[in-house]
Amino acid sequence: MAESGLISKKKLEGKVAIVTGGASGIGEAAARLFANNGARMVVIADIQDEVGRRVAESIGLEQASYIHCDVTDEEQVKAMVKSTVQNHKQLDIMLSNAGLLSRSDQTILDLDFSELDRMFAVNVRGMAACVKHAARVMVEGHVRGSIVCTASVASCSAFDKFIDYFMSKHAVLGLVRSASNQLGAHGIRVNCVSPYIIATPMTCHAVGMDPEQEEEVEKIFEPNIVLKGLALKAIHVADALLFLASNDSACVTGHNLVVDGGFLIK
């Protein structure tokens, strides 16, 4: 018989979670980790239907499902949350992870407002919709839930280009801090994780490389982090997301957990 101190307790036993942007990258890693930690159901939401269904099937359809959801459409977000509660009787965790990267190197001097609107539609409005509708069902169901947003080191830094992206991630941090203050009265925690650049499929495409070239993409950004010999991966971010989603962080709210290998302290 194992000693009591050695028994491994699954951190999300019996919980129901939604993961937006869950078909690939950080979202996929988090969905798999949530399932491995005992989540009763992980609802993977994305616009990559074929890929999302494959991820759900690989986790196991008794523990994961896929739903198409474009977070720029509030009605789709609302329907996603409603169907989750109808099908699984509860919602304990919302991971608002869907996001975009800049398509250009624009600065304030050449800011393209159509690109800014595109960025904010996903990275800000989409996240706000997820927080809003998850919080509503948690309040109605008297659930002391956890809402986690994926931000970025861009939420607390500046750069000489990509202004639309940096603006959007600063807004995510404002959303998290304000929502945590307002939802604390209901016992609902709201936090975010801010990773440095991870070699996700989206990042690989952004630098003109294929997802199969992940290691080469990692080498591009490795010199910018303090922890030498470490390549930041999606699982490192997923570990932080699991911490904030679980009761391990029961007294943590309004927090921005930076996962950057020391990039911001340089």
Largest sheet: 7 strands, parallel
What helical percentage do the residues reach? 40-55%
> CA-to-CA gap between the ends?
48 Å
Q: Helix/strand-derived class?
A: alpha/beta
Beta-strand percent range: 5-15%
What is the number of strand segments? Answer: 7
Low-confidence stretches: 1-5
Mean pLDDT: 94
What key phrases describe this protein's structure?
7 strands, 42% helix, alpha/beta, 266 residues, disordered N terminus, 7-stranded parallel β-sheet, single chain
A few lines on this structure:
With 266 residues, this protein is an alpha/beta fold. The chain is built from eight helices and seven strands, in the order βαβαβαβαβαβαααβ.
Explain what this protein looks like in three dimensions.
There is one protein chain. The protein is of the alpha/beta class and 266 residues long. The protein has eight helices and seven strands, in the order E-H-E-H-E-H-E-H-E-H-E-H-H-H-E. The chain has helices at 25-36, 49-59, 74-88, 113-140, 163-183, 201-206, 214-221, 234-245, and strands spanning 16-20, 41-46, 64-68, 93-96, 146-150, 189-195, 256-259. The protein has a seven-stranded parallel β-sheet, sandwiched between helices.
